[in-house]
Amino acid sequence: MNILRWTPISAAVCGAALLCACGPSSGSGVPAEGQPPSATGADAAGSGTVQADPLADLPKGWEVTDAYLGVPVEIVRKHDERGRLEWIATRRAGAERVGGEHGPEWTFFSNGVPKVKKTWVDGELSGPYVALFKSGLVRTEGQNEAGGRTGVWKRYFEVGQLQSTKEYVEGQPHGEFREWYTSGELRSEARFEHGLQVGVERVWSTDGVLLLERHWQAGQLHGATTERDENGELRLEGGFEDGAKSGEWTVYDESGRRRVQEFWEAGLLEGPRSTWREDGSQIDSTEHAAGVPHGATEAWYADGTRQLEGRHEDGRKSGRWTYWKPDGSVDPTWSGEYVDDQKVGE
After folding, report:
1. Do residues 85 and 98 lie in contact, with contact meaning Cβ atoms separated by under 8 Å?
2. Dihedral sign, Cα of residue 12, residue 13, residue 14, residue 15
């Protein structure tokens, strides 16, 4: 676990104050389960009214100095209406705030606990980054370099357990991404290359049941996709090609019975789309082309007798449509010739 140790560059007394980050105490591995991370020396002292001494309300962990990495700096601060420290940072001496950031910057909760601690070098985020909960436990921690994230970034639940890890290179996700439940069970895993998701993505239940598995290529869904319920029963299977639905897709109910079957091409319905009732009897079937109904359409009552038949042209009823009542007789109200979705004759 990376523990941030904040120590002064020097102890010279002047009108500026800052911190520098010493190196991590250990590698970037996942901390032991149940061991919450902390930031040594990260408590804030400042609350209450502003003191006459301009350095009196500096938070614990800050020391007085006049330079950061050899560059002259000055301290800047902001207080709320009650005089409590809200924000403190260093910047190049005499520089504007935007672009002049150089050295550490902290923001605070109303109770004085640091909210975010980050470090700047020549106007770019560079060095350790820590976001905390109001309780003082770490929410997020990682490293920046030349303005972008680098290495392993970690997020934690408010109770202290590890929530996720994500690897970065030059500011982009690159490597493994994992999430956990508060129980410590693995929730999901995925992989990125140069900011784009690749490979297999998997999601599990708290009981370790595989709920979702799908494939990625260059940031787009590509390949087989399956979804299962908490009991491990298959609920959906299909596929993608270059980010668009492709091929046969089937939806199942909790008993494993097929409820919907459809065919896709380049993200558009192409071919028959059929549905079934819980008892397995078929409800309907409609041909599609380019994403809209086109061709024959049929539907059935639960006892298997016909309910309707007809055709669509480019999504609209066309030609002869016949509707049957439950007793098997033709329903004259709806039956007849159709043009452009309108009944025009018997």
Report:
1. no
2. positive
Distances in Å between the alpha carbon of 255 and those of 57, 209, 326? 65, 17, 28
Residue 82: which residues within 8 A CB-CB, separation 6 or more? 48, 49
Whether the Cβ atoms of residue 323 and residue 308 lie closer than 8 Å to each other: yes
- Check: CB of residue 35 under 8 Å from CB of residue 91: no
Q: Considering the chain, what percentage of its residues have pLDDT values greater than 70?
A: 82
Tokens found for residue 29: 């591995």
Question: Where does residue 208 rank: exposed (0-12), middle (13-18), buried (19+ CB within 10 A)?
Answer: exposed
CA angle 166, 170, 174 (to 5 degrees): 35
Nearest to 154 by CA among 130, 136, 135, 137: 130
For residue 76, name the pLDDT band (cuts at 50, 70, 90).
confident
Quick one: which of 227, 179, 225 has its CA closest to 206?
Answer: 179
Rg (CA), the chain: 31
Q: Cα separation of 167 and 303, whole Å? A: 57
Q: What is the pLDDT of residues 190-205, one digit of tens each?
A: 999 999 999 999 999 9
CA distance 84 to 78: 8
Q: Are 289 and 311 in contact (CB under 8 A)?
A: no
Residue 153 CA, distance from chain mean position:
14
Separation CA 312–CA 272 (nearest Å): 12
Contacts of 321 (CB under 8 A, 6+ apart): 308, 309, 310, 311, 334, 335, 336, 337, 338, 343
Please provide the average confidence, as pLDDT, over all residues in the chain.
85
Domain boundaries defined on the chain: 1-158
> How far from chain centre, in Å, is Cα 285?
37
Q: Which amino acid is at 51?
A: Q
Residue with tokens 């995925």: 190
Q: What pLDDT is stored for residue 96 in this prediction?
A: 72
Confidence of residue 225 (pLDDT cuts 50, 70, 90): very high
Bridge partners for 180 per DSSP: 186
